[in-house]
């Protein structure tokens, strides 16, 4: 947080120096300079430790002498009891910044961007002020344009105090076609064996289709398909030579289709014994087809 406050400069004959001092400080912060109250002069009383914690405003009634009509009104510079906290939010979310101030007289509170541009209720912005010095800045459906440094500014006759905070907007990852996170392996079996091909894909509302040699297959013997959530399994019972070939699983959602290919080799038990099982290097193809 960035905090600072203004203290009045003692002695009425230094009023102009006080005004120049204010303008200098405000120019350093890129914030508007405070304007003195007409007919008022600022004084300050030092504490035992040398710091000025409480000031007083002397109000002068026109047509009367300073000595007989002046009254001292104690004042205390604003102070933040609760500072607004920086927030990192996802695009589209609503964020709420809160703060609470104290001071004598009760300070006014203003929300602004770091360049000094004030924020008012309207559109996606909403400001709520409570009766106990608390205030809220609400920004609805934030986007990249809202990412900025902001400030809460408290003012009274005792000075100005500001607290800065940041809003960081995280851009959501754009939706995409499904991505396989569990893949079946190409395999070699003998006639009469059972085969299990398993797939799992990430993505929103994924559906599946199975193909053999580019022709769609369904729940008809010797095939059986089970779909559970984002998983699918193709079972081949009592495989024959006819079930050998290339199999493909398509994972589909509204953003696209991802295809996984693998080969099933079915060997005849009459030609080859278990000790002479054919060793086949099979390709695994992971192919993405965007709609």
From TrEMBL:
<dbReference type="GO" id="GO:0005886">
    <property type="term" value="C:plasma membrane"/>
</dbReference>
<dbReference type="GO" id="GO:0070593">
    <property type="term" value="P:dendrite self-avoidance"/>
</dbReference>
<dbReference type="InterPro" id="IPR003598">
    <property type="entry name" value="Ig_sub2"/>
</dbReference>
<dbReference type="GO" id="GO:0030424">
    <property type="term" value="C:axon"/>
</dbReference>
<keyword id="KW-0393">Immunoglobulin domain</keyword>
<dbReference type="GO" id="GO:0098632">
    <property type="term" value="F:cell-cell adhesion mediator activity"/>
</dbReference>
<feature type="region of interest" description="Disordered">
    <location>
        <begin position="31"/>
        <end position="55"/>
    </location>
</feature>
<keyword id="KW-0677">Repeat</keyword>
<dbReference type="InterPro" id="IPR013098">
    <property type="entry name" value="Ig_I-set"/>
</dbReference>
<feature type="domain" description="Ig-like">
    <location>
        <begin position="78"/>
        <end position="168"/>
    </location>
</feature>
<feature type="domain" description="Ig-like">
    <location>
        <begin position="178"/>
        <end position="267"/>
    </location>
</feature>
<protein>
    <recommendedName>
        <fullName>Ig-like domain-containing protein</fullName>
    </recommendedName>
</protein>
<dbReference type="GO" id="GO:0007156">
    <property type="term" value="P:homophilic cell adhesion via plasma membrane adhesion molecules"/>
</dbReference>
<dbReference type="InterPro" id="IPR003599">
    <property type="entry name" value="Ig_sub"/>
</dbReference>
<dbReference type="GO" id="GO:0007411">
    <property type="term" value="P:axon guidance"/>
</dbReference>
<dbReference type="InterPro" id="IPR013783">
    <property type="entry name" value="Ig-like_fold"/>
</dbReference>
<dbReference type="InterPro" id="IPR036179">
    <property type="entry name" value="Ig-like_dom_sf"/>
</dbReference>
<dbReference type="Pfam" id="PF07679">
    <property type="entry name" value="I-set"/>
</dbReference>
<dbReference type="InterPro" id="IPR007110">
    <property type="entry name" value="Ig-like_dom"/>
</dbReference>
